Amino acid sequence: MAEILLSEAEKAFIHHGVQDDLRCDGRTRLDYRPIILETGLVSNASGSSRLRLANSDVLVGVKVELASPLSEKPLEGRLEFFVDCSANATPEFEGRGGEDLANEICRFLQMSYMSGDTINLAELSVLTGQQCWVLYVDILILECGGNLYDTVSLAVKSALYTTQIPSIKVATMDGDQPELELSEDPYDTKRLNTQNVPCLVTLMKIGNHYLVDPTPEEECCSSSGVVVAVSGTKKITAVRKIGSGSLHPESLVSMLKTASEVGTVVNKILMNKLLEEERAGKTQKVGFMR
Amino acid sequence: MDMLTSKIFLRKTKRGKVLKVVREHYLRDDLWCGSDLCKKCNQENSEVLDDAPISSSTLCACPHYVVVDTNVVLHQIDVLESPAWKNVIVLQTVLEETRKRSTNNFKKLKEIMATRKDSFYVFVNEHHKDTYVERKPGESANDRNDRAIRKACSWYQTHLEESQQGREKKKKVQIILLTQDFKNREQALKEGIPAYRVDEYVKSLKDFPDLQEKLAASHSDDNAENREPLFPEHWAPTRIMTGIKSGKLLQGIFHCSRENFLEGSVSVEGQDKSILLQGHASLNRAVDGDIVAVELLPEDKWTSPSGIVLEDQEDQDPGDQIEKEEALLTNSTKGKDLQPTGKIVGIIRRKWRQYCGILLPSVLAEGTRHLFVPAERKIPKIRIETRQAATLSSQKIIVAIDSWPRTSRYPLGHFVRALGNIGDKDTENEVLLLEHDVPHHSFPETVLACLPSMPWMISQEEVNCREDLRNLDICSVDPPGCTDIDDALHFRELSPNLYEIGVHIADVSHFVRPDTALDKEAANRGTTVYLVDRRIDMVPELLSSNLCSLRPDQERLAFSVIWEVTPNAEIKKTRFTKSVIRSRRAYTYAEAQCSIDDPLQQNELAKSLRGLNKLAKIMKKNRMEKGALQLSSPEIRFEVSTETNDPIDVISKPMLDTNSMVEEFMLLANISVAEHIFKHFPECAVLRRHPVPPESNFEPFLKAGKTQGFTLDVSSNKSLAASLDAAVKPDNVYMNTMLRILATRCMMQAVYFSSGTVAQVDFYHYGLAAPIYTHFTSPIRRYADLLVHRLLAVAISADVTYAELLDRKCVQQLCNNLNYRHKMSQYAQRSSVALHTHLFFRHRVQDEDAYVLSVRQNALQVLIPKYGLEGSIYLKEKDEDSKSAFIYNPDEPSQTCDNITIRTFDRIVVQVSLDSKYVQHQKIAVHLVQPQIAGLSVEPIKTVNVSEPTPKKLKSGN
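YS: structure for the whole thing
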């Protein structure tokens, strides 16, 4: 991630702010920065969203495709994540520079979606053992402004929420070839239940305190933290420690507890906003021309 | 107002992926209504729609413009052609829907609109900002289009209203919607748009009472949108496998009938009778050659092959619809000759390859979906997508099949490459080589590197380890123009009661050593293929026409078989040896015949030939007594013009004594060698067998014999030969030949095999009546002979062996390839002759004698001996009422019309010409000249219009 050069004095200032529960931008430790979300931007994709959290900017597209299911899970479809760190975000991503970060995010997303509670993959099955839907979730990171994990997870959830899976009218086998008939009505689609899809919450430890939604400067001041995947039912589906420093078991437990609470709230707010947007119906798309 | 919208739809790709397609759709505000009375639109004054139209309809007396719905165009297109129609608005929605549903009607509509520009106005409602409607959730495409049409109607209403506010109510122009769809009409009336059925409206037109007759029988609008699968589904492979194991299903190779595209058969291994399949559903997307699983129908549903000749000859693209097939198949005579009948439930292995053929001219040239017609009649048409139809339509192209979904009438494929222009001889040659899988690329460098360097001489060591036969008077006898001479003969008297005869075969195995690139190439090619104007060599030309060819007066290496025989052709001694020979002369058959017949010629060679000929005659007689068959198939050769390489004349090959003389000694050599190699290599000798045909094969032959009053005995080859000899009719000399041709068609294919894989009783060669047989005498052009040479060389300790030669599995594999190549090369040769016949008739129409080969329910199959050409005379056209009342008698079989009866083998006169109705798809057409039958036969033409002054003739070699 983009390295920020901070002097010792600046670091101390941030430290003290966190201690006093008043961060540089005026937030408390458990406050998020404002989020801008818009869905359905990419008309070619089956579902898409663009999410901007302060200066972090992410575009997610979901593409549905028919494939054969994995032999160990013949009754389920699957999700495939792919993260692309655009060199627009920071010059360091140029070439293969962003690959490590991309893989990291990718793997953690995969892990947090693995729990059966998050998403019902059986919904994606078309013909048992033969055909299923695979959702290719493509994440494009356009700008890095700290707290990338949270940004990405919120954007992915929104994109999955809007994903329209075409309905298949007839599914039979013709010899060893599956034969499917697609409904010719483009509106005849089904949607996934994304209620429980996890949100990632990053908690950074600065001094004796931890805070959510760190700015790049704050990330720079912290030596350790955790990323927690919290499902809509308040369940933690995956945890990952970040940074080089260590965490005391006690503070870890308390951080997890806080994360699951914050995660649930974020989840609920996001779902409400998505519902609100959907109810508003067709509105002029804003996109990047703002 | 947002002028940019997008159309979104889902599409399944060929590979089964689902694509979401988004098309940008721009709306405009500068599309005019086209009405003369309009004061708002900024249009020029050449409007189509009149200011004050005159209504001749009693249904709607006030002036009006007519908007037609898609279903009117689809079902009542003939009515629209009438000049009664004026002031018609055709919406873009209607145009596009018509185009999608019926290309034929679309084309007609376009024509109507082009010729009557002053009456039809196309309103591009889909792009007009006020009339564009977006599809709503849950709305079918049809409903959306109906809504778009109504929207356009009401827009016109309000739009025109504004311009004619001052008018009297009765003079105001109205918009009338004509639709056959009840729901649409209801809805339109509800929205205040006057709507009528087209038949209602047409009947109300008082000025055009005749128009009613053109109305098509009223169609209830059948929303034919939902595409029902046309074929039953295939079973899953596991289900098929268990079905085969339990014996419920049978596995076999599917053969499509050559004569009837709706009929096929499946030959199941170990079953005498093949299983009959009839109709689209039973054939279930099988393509000729596929290995399929068949379910037998209950016995009461068994039928017999229908006697009719049926071609899938739609000249137009019928779309994905299956025509009513009952009519095409019901004629099958029930009740006798029942054959096991079944239906295909699954395909075990596809044998799809690439096919040569042409594109069917499409109604809509700018479209991308076209039908491809393969050259091979047994292969169904293939639907391909291409944007270059215009350029490809005049070319022969190659197409590969990708899939055959249940909803598609034809298999789907893709364009592979173009070969060249239709009718070009080079293109057509290329096509037939490709069609028959003949490897015809030039020899690669690695192969050429295996050849000896020139100039080449026989070294002294080579001579030392061979028998020196250079002193003998050896000569060769071959067809004219032959450059690959692989056999030569000699004859000398040892004593008055003992002759020595020798057969000397080119020693190709000396040059083609095992396991070299040259050997592998030759093994793959398997045989030399002789086309009419071209020879595709098995080994490079340096070997085939020079070093191996036993040219006169040149020292050549040979493999010799030398017998000592008595004057009664009794063999006393046989020996085999590698040798060095020098042929004295290369005779043609005719020259050799001359030397024998001319008593003035008393040189050594002439004497030898006479001796050989005498012995050959005795040998042939002995062989015939043992039961060898003399069969016949029409053979012709072309005389080819040297300049254009086009055929200018056709002659049948003459049969001379010398032909059979050479043949006799080659047979003798082959049999002697076969015995010898089998003695030394009982496990891996390469032999050739000709299986005894099963009795059922002879059925058509026996039937044909019966019509002529002959009882033919087919219990053994000897009895068959005898009954063939007896079946002679003095008034129909060609009848016997015809019988022999028919008998040939009952035969099995002779095959190469490795002696270890077959029981010794099955070695029998049925046609030659020889207990054991092989091919030894043509190593230049057949790879099997080369293998036999190697085996024989090992047997006489003249060469060493190698592992593959002694492994019976390897040998059998080689044999399988050779059998395949041999079969294909024969087909290719036949096609080449057919192609040249075709070229020959390009400028000609000729009357020729012909004989009826078989009588079918709707056709006569005739053979024209002069060209070896077979053709069909259709007695009844498919769609027309029978032009001439032919009565078919299936028992005889015969066709009777008035007092003329045509039976099998009858001699008739036919007119042969090239049917160039379609430039793309020329074929030889045969018409009846005699006996004269009104309505069917054509006037005789006795002119032969050869326009080319070509005295220079070149005989094509064989």
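YS: worth flagging: The interface with chain B takes residues 43-46, 64-66, 166, 172-180, 182-188, 284 of chain A (CB under 8 Å).
IM: good catch. Also Chain A has one domain: 8-280.
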